[in-house]
Design brief:
With about 260 residues, the protein is of the alpha+beta class. It contains 4 helices and 12 strands. It is about 15% helix and about 30% strand.
Length: about 260
């Protein structure tokens, strides 16, 4: 059977968007077990996300000006992270985050949301955490803080720390698993496609909250998997903000036609 050239078919970006629309039409909520249909659709979406490359979005991988560490750092005043909007519905949002060398997206949550992240170029380190709802008194005592700050404490667990490149499969989060994460650019600029379902919406209780790790040992490697830690909710860090860039890739249509 003759295979059609790639450019005569729907773009992979279009196919990802359509599959995301199907997958997240009625996703499992916090505490709900995913059903067979959702898991099958999620598997199809993961397969498509695994295939996508920077060239599919007309992205040219960015490099530092030269090989020196000083040149690799972003300049003061420039947004350390930028975002390219691809599409958004009530069910999901899809876009591309671009991190300059040395940049990080601080530890943050995704309340009641699913997500999928696929590196397009460069390398990222992702540290994934989850909230623990059981009462205090476990293996780690609460840090000594002023009374006014005690309400911002969150008992949590570090699930994993791993590095991802364009050859890696997607990183997946759900309302119940790996819902908090920090994303660091490693060894140069990086970009990743990002799907969130449903999108952030402050009016619907899906605002983004930032945290810092209060335990003595910062997450540094796989050997610390499932280590219980205390997090403290903080304001958006002053060193982090996100600018916007035009999306250069193929248009996405989610109409029923």
């Amino acid at each position: 059977m003759t295979q059609l050239p790639r450019d005569t078919m729907s773009s992979i970006v279009q196919r990802i968007a359509r599959q995301a629309l199907v997958t997240f039409r009625s996703p499992p909520r916090l505490g709900e077990e995913p059903n067979k249909t959702f898991l099958e659709n999620q598997g199809k979406l993961k397969s498509l996300m695994t295939e996508v490359r920077a060239s599919d979005l007309n992205l040219v991988p960015r490099r530092s000006d030269d090989g020196s560490p000083r040149a690799a750092l972003y300049h003061p005043g420039a947004a350390p992270v930028t975002y390219m909007h691809i599409c958004e519905t009530d069910q999901f949002s899809m876009g591309v985050f671009l991190l300059k060398s040395g940049a990080s997206i601080p530890l943050h949550d995704h309340p009641g949301m699913h997500g999928m992240l696929k590196v397009l170029y460069g390398k990222v380190r992702i540290s994934c955490f989850d909230r623990l709802e059981r009462p205090a008194g476990g293996p780690q005592a609460a840090p000594a803080l002023p009374p006014a700050q005690m309400g911002a404490l969150r008992r949590s667990v570090l699930r994993s720390t791993a590095e991802y490149t364009e050859e890696s499969g997607p990183c997946v989060l759900s309302p119940d698993r790996d819902n908090l994460h920090q994303i660091d650019a490693v060894d140069g600029p990086t970009a990743f496609m990002d799907i969130l379902a449903p999108p952030y919406d402050q009016d619907e209780g899906r605002d983004c909250h930032y945290f810092k790790v209060l335990s003595e040992t910062e997450p540094t490697g796989p050997e610390q998997k499932d280590k219980e830690v205390w997090l403290m909710e903080i304001s958006q860090p002053s060193h982090f903000w996100c600018g916007g860039e035009p999306y250069p890739g193929p248009e996405v249509s989610l109409s029923s036609s």
